[in-house]
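User: My notes are a mess, but here's the protein and thiamine diphosphate's SMILES. Can you give me a structure?
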Amino acid sequence: MIKPEVLFKALSDQGINFFTGVPDSLLKNFCAFVTDNVIDSQHIITANEGNAVALSAGHYLGTGKMGLVYLQNSGLGNTINPLLSLNDPEVYGLPVLLMIGWRGEPGIKDEPQHIKQGRISTTLLDAMEIPWHIIDSTSKDIEDIISLASSQALNREGPVALMIRKGTFSPYSLKTNPEINNQISREQAIQQLIKQLNSNDRVVVTTGMPARELYEFRELRGDNLANDFLTVGSMGHAASISLGLAISEANRRVICIDGDGSVLMHMGSLAIIGQSRQENLIHVVLNNGSHDSVGGQPTCALDIDLLGIAKCCGYRKVILAKNLREIEGAFNELSDEKGPLFLEIRIKKGSRENLGRPRTTPTENRIAFMENFNTNKSKI
Ligand SMILES: Cc1ncc(C[n+]2csc(CCOP(=O)(O)OP(=O)(O)O)c2C)c(N)n1
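Assistant: No problem, the inputs look usable. Here's the predicted complex:
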């Protein structure tokens, strides 16, 4: 395995001292090392991966030095526009090193949403004419790979990628891990919400642990699993999916259970939802100030006024809840109001060790969800 500090030193030796990106579980040991050892102004966790590419472009324009952008391969889609229309040698010619966590690499077992993404990641890089190199736990020549990749990026005046295989880094535990002093867990918050829904309500839940916790609780209660759309991929889009659903089924409530990292990723959707005046939409954000599902790296969501943002965007009512009693009261209050409505719930970090995973495939989830939706629709 590669020690995070070895890779970090190899990057420093090439003059790479600026780090930005969106966290990934495969990169979490490296990202934790960067968090502990790089000052805040030189390490910025962005709302989405495209922002990170643009941020590193600004850094290059200001310093003449390239930065490192880290991301999960799921985030490649978010980077395509700036990589091709900003950094590309045929446009502004801005060098950048991409460090990509390779989920769903062919031959490695992974979740359904990662399989195709993993299979075509390098093909996608080839299509973008971005040179790439593989790093894994057996790579002995890290300094050489980094030196080659960075000189390639500088010479071609464009991006070069490092594909990081599962299990590459040796463990590193974050020392500067800020305490999140909220009272309830995400699982408790989800359970409380579910208890207050009725059987006609539709739920769209965001990527990562929230979907897993919702699924497990529904199974435990013997609920109809077909009420829920588990957005296992496409992080940040649960709110827009919810809006589309709410518009098409105006007689039913749609509850979006979002995360703070997810809501930040495509925050523009809040403005569109607010503007829609969609009465049957309740947007719940479970705010733990972190990307808990991939290692607990911080987001800025506990330092900004999410309620104020939602309010200004046009949500008709916004409420904050910090414990189970407040969730109960808030949800009852919202149930009497016209949407779009916004409920921020402050939660702790962390999840159960033995948390299961959905046993249905995304396609099975989609078919059951749509059948359930249409069957109930015809009864109205
Ligand atoms: C486009 C994209 N970037 C990154 C990821 C990796 N990823 C999966 S879940 C997650 C964190 C989600 O954080 P949040 O929405 O706050 O929910 P939490 O896990 O904290 O409950 C990340 C970064 C992804 N799936 N897709």
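The chain has a mean pLDDT of 96.
User: Great, I'll file this with my notes.
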